[in-house]
Amino acid sequence: MNLESDYLIIEMAQETYKHEGILELESGEKLQDFEIAYTTQGHLTTAKDNVIWVIHALTGDANVQDWWGGLMGEDKFYDPAKYFIVCANLLGSCYGSTNPLSNHPETGETYYYDFPQLTTRDLSKSLDLLREHLGISQIHTLIGGSLGGQVALEWAYLLEAKVNNTVILASNAKTSAWTIGFNETQRMAIEADSTWGSKHPEAGKKGLEAARAMAMMSYRHPEDFALKQTDQVEKLDNFRIASYLRYQGQKLANRFNAFSYWVLSKTMDSHDLGRGRGGTAQALSQIQSKVLAIGVDRDLLFLKEESQFIAQHAQKGSFREIKSSYGHDAFLIEYGQLQYILSSFYLESNTL
């Protein structure tokens, strides 16, 4: 690293952290010698006080500008000219981190169905190991949406005073029966695929297509479908919404796999910040950072009331609402509202 003014220059890079050792999992299982793919971009000040750590959602990856480009990037709200932005691919995901299609370090064989169960608490512990590896002692803002928000909340609890601001978008402190139900129906679709159970990288692929189509029904609001997927001509079959859902299913199945989808959807189900900590309200009250919980008014998957609950019980919690017909996906789309909400939050807390 070269000293330039008061900055340590760190070029944008995609790297892999290789952890040699055992990660004790909440289930009692163990994950040995795992890898985490991550990207960094921007400049780390000599005080190391400008870290923005982003956590992706269920099928996201470490290339944050690819899926949150309206918020992260040059001349955007989180500009790498000002901030040092870190985003890691979660364990279990198939974008460079250890996942069910990785080889077991002892046997050399692919994990497949023997990959251990992961919880959001496990994922936060793995990210903390990466943080220590990077030599980051303080995080300015920890931010994540959906599954990423769940992991961020768990990590904020673990980090204590090592994080200043925690931003949780369209997420919750404990996964509801409603959300678990959505996830279970998707896993049933994968199970119904005749290839599921075989030890092949593409096992469950057609089932994953159906699972993604189901998921889209919870990611968007009926109003959004009515506006964009209603047929303009009278017909009896081959409706526009049907083609759209099939396309979305195929699109995901061509870039993801059923094994990672299975593991990470189970991870989402496991989320309970209050497990073993006296309940969710008690656990939220122990988070030391400022917490901004952002809900979406028409979110059908993570209800805005769940975001309000986070804000009500966090020591330094506040709630803001995105108004959008997009539904759950609004946290990935409504950049104008997000920038306004985030600007207000930082100004009120004097932490921008």
The coarse silhouette is globular
Q: Main β-sheet: number of strands, strand sense, barrel status? A: 10 strands, mixed
The chain-level mean pLDDT equals 95
Low-confidence stretches: 1-11
Rg over CA atoms: 20 Å
Q: Considering DSSP H and I runs of 4 or more, what fraction of the residues is helical? A: 25-40%
Distance between the termini: 25 Å
Sheet/helix structural class: alpha/beta
Question: How many strand segments?
Answer: 12
Q: What is the strand content?
A: 15-25%
Reading the helices and strands in chain order gives EEEEEEEHEHEHEHHHHHHEHEH
Q: Specify the number of helices.
A: 11
Please give a structural write-up.
With 352 residues, the chain is of the alpha/beta class. It contains eleven helices and twelve strands. The chain has helices at residues 64-67, 120-134, 147-159, 177-192, 205-219, 222-228, 240-253, 258-270, 280-285, 304-313, 335-349, and strands spanning 3-4, 7-9, 13-18, 22-24, 30-32, 35-45, 51-55, 84-88, 139-145, 163-169, 290-296, 316-322. The strands form two sheets. Strands 1, 2, 3, 6, 7, 8, 9, 10, 11 and 12 form a ten-stranded mixed β-sheet that branches. Helix 4 runs antiparallel to helix 5 (205-219). The radius of gyration is 20 Å and the shape is globular. It starts with a strand and ends with a helix.
